[in-house]
Amino acid sequence: MACFRSIGSLTSLTHSPRNVSRSSGIVLTSCSVHPITRSTFTGSPISIPRVQQPSQKPTRPRNLLPITSMVKPTLQFIQGTDEMTIPDVKLTRSRDGSNGMALFSFDQPSVFDSSGEVGEITGLYMIDEEGVIQSTDVNARFVNGKPEGIVAKHVMRTPKEWDRFMRFMERYSDQNGLQFVKKQ
């Protein structure tokens, strides 16, 4: 025999829950009532079929386009502080395409103006919508004891790393007006 009980009245029942509806507060259980509880109900029994939920895919109105979060491609020496100086970038790649290297040369980078205030240079961070590419091979050039520039090297050891770097550079160059010039 199936019966409906509210959650508040389940304390006097011996039951094994089969279907719980959290939103309505109703529990469908298979239950047996203790012998001391008698019902005066004389109606006819009913059978309630199980309802199958149709599998529906969430639909989106056709006139709305998906929202894509775009991150401005940027370079950072100190996380959270964008580098304003546009570098010269030299690329080399092995003949078989298995590895490569990018050499970034920054003349008078803006990080020298603020490095004492916001923290230490911890690497070169290349940030775009896909994530962060990090290189820790960063060296400063000094002339007469004053910082002149920064040279950062990023080594790519697999074709996958090369492709990821090139996607970043394409976005960064579009944003900052850089052009690719092939060596002759």
From TrEMBL:
It is a peripheral membrane protein. It holds the Pfam family Psb28. Residues 44-63 are annotated as: Disordered. It is found in: Plastid, Chloroplast thylakoid membrane. Residues 44-58 have a biased composition (Polar residues). Keywords: Chloroplast, Membrane, Photosynthesis, Photosystem II, Plastid, Thylakoid. One of its GO terms (biological process) is photosynthesis. InterPro entries: Psb28_c1_sf, PSII_Psb28_class-1. One of its GO terms (cellular component) is photosystem II oxygen evolving complex. Part of the photosystem II complex. Belongs to the Psb28 family. PANTHER family: PHOTOSYSTEM II REACTION CENTER PSB28 PROTEIN (PTHR34963:SF4), PTHR34963. This is Photosystem II reaction center Psb28 protein.
